[in-house]
Amino acid sequence: MTARREIEAVTARIRERSRETREAYLARVDEAAAKGPHRTVLSCGNLAHGFAACGPQDKAALAGDVVPNLGIITAYNDMLSAHQPYEPYPRLIKEAAHEAGGVAQVAGGVPAMCDGVTQGQPGMELSLFSRDVIALAAAVGLSHNMFDAAVFLGICDKIVPGLVTAALSFGHLPAVFIPAGPMTTGLPNDEKSKVRQLFAEGKVGREALLEAEAKSYHGPGTCTFYGTANSNQMLMEIMGLHTPGSSFVNPNTPLRDALTKEAAQRALAITALGNEFTPAGRMIDERSIVNGVVGLNATGGSTNHTIHLIAIAAAAGIKLTWADIAEISANVPLLARVYPNGLADVNHFHAAGGMGFLVRELLDAGLLHEDVQTIWGPGLRPYAVEAKLGEDGTVAREPAPARSGNEKVLAPVAKAFQPTGGIRVLTGNLGQAIIKTSAVKPEHRVVEAPAIVFTAQEELQAAFKAGELDDRDFIAVIRYQGPKANGMPELHKLTPLLGVLQDRGRRVALVTDGRMSGASGKVPAAIHVTPEALDGGAIGKVRDGDMVRLDAEAGTLEILVEAEELAGREIEPVDLTHRHYGMGRELFAGFRALASRADQGAAVF
């Protein structure tokens, strides 16, 4: 089944735009595949080092060239809830490899930082760049050329995009991504949000806030709201890098372990040593990328992926743009209401039918490319299923439910929550920006108000605490937050403050060259403004009191001053020295200098 004309048209445009870079990339993939990661290309000294720590059985297997070896790249650490469940995975994967007649080795580890821990802290200014560090670290692990395929253990915000970038850089190898799943449901996200707003108003203390946060983030697994981490899992499944139905199964359950072992064995089955060779670089193509963008919009996913998907696509020689993302959004209905777009969490989404229901609905409506290659085989239709634990302890699958278990959480296309996905590109004399409207009520989508200019989120927080923002409509312009300035941190700490003012009836909005969050919420926010202030962007020319108009309906972002006056203004310089050291920030000076624009993926390579 082919996709709708509108989706086909965007895909064709991406394919034509990417022709030269994609062909060059595929030539490199084919060249590397022809050379092969077969152990016979290694010298005896190379190979001896590569299996020195293995047991006798694995040494004997790796000494020849007929047994596939699986490289494990892991983002395990035991501080972060989402990655702590990965601790036993290498053992499970090695057991599965032996059962399948193969070998598995941990090829390397990559860092995994949590934006939830670093929000509003200096460490947040390393967050976006950690994606590229992860890609580099994974590349080092795979550079030993000992492997016939790789599995990637990572789940959260920058980790998965970094790992996908690495997988595509080693595109001659099959790549399978193995999730760890969301934590079980705790304090409802809307109740947590209310406590945050009460704390911002000074109506409850730190003890009450910490209690609410701890009840929400209470155990192993990803946070249950639909932010970047869970958007990652949706993307990996809808792009065919997960096994079907595996994204949202809770950690430390028999089904989760069975899915992990199955994924390892599938990775071994699709190496060049078998009959189903599926190198990641050929598997992921323009159609796969478009399917990812469709899924992002259909589920109201994270705005961070308007940056990450561009970087991921570029790693495969594919030129994706914000215009492509916006056009797909205009043609894809919103089918999920998961916090911050609704009251439910991802466990409720999964229980209502989850990814299997979503994939089937989108396929039947012609909104996805069905004729893609996946790690499971040809075609996306096999992903329209629900994974369960079979009687023998292995994974069993059955067709996704015909009806949603809860149409307030997961709707069929015929009853979509809204006709578009809610991600829009804003364009005007302030540059280009992204806005996520799916969680913003229609009456708040157009704001025209005087600007109040800040160069750090702490300045806005101080103004709020001092009562300077109480009785006024305004658009907060927070600049010098782009990748070149300070690594493009998320400004999620501002959501409760601006939400309080909006709830009091004030007309408020945010305009920034920084990021907001995978949890971008009810306050209209024009984010990722490009060019950024440090790169000569007009956002650096805004003055206090200038009238600014953010119109998410018309797709415009304007400073309402005469063109001649705006052209004659100088960009206000800011001394950022104090933001370039401490908490490791001095080590990232090269990254800040190399970073591309947000609409080009904000990457350093």
Top keywords for this entry?
single chain, 605 residues, alpha/beta, 2 domains, 23 helices, 16 strands, 38% helix, 13% strand, phosphogluconate dehydratase activity, 6-phosphgluc_deHydtase, gluconate utilization
Strand content: 5-15%
| Overall form | globular
* Number of helical stretches of at least 4 residues: 23
Q: Which spans of ≥5 residues are poorly predicted at pLDDT below 50?
A: none
Function: Catalyzes the dehydration of 6-phospho-D-gluconate to 2-dehydro-3-deoxy-6-phospho-D-gluconate.
EC number: 4.2.1.12
Binding site for [4Fe-4S] cluster: 156, 223
Enzyme class: lyase
What would you note in describing this structure?
The protein is α/β, with parallel strands linked by helices. The protein has two domains: 5-184 and 219-399, no CATH class; 423-600, Glucose Oxidase, domain 1 (3-Layer(bba) Sandwich), CATH 3.50.30.80. It is 38% helix and 13% strand. It has 23 helices and 16 strands. An eight-stranded mixed β-sheet has the order 9-10-14-13-12-11-15-16. The protein has a four-stranded parallel β-sheet with strand order 2-1-3-4. A hairpin with a 4-residue loop joins β15 and β16 (556-559). α7 packs parallel to α8 (159-169) and α9 (189-200) packs across α21. It starts with a helix and ends in an 11-residue tail after the last helix. The model has no long low-confidence stretch (mean pLDDT 95).
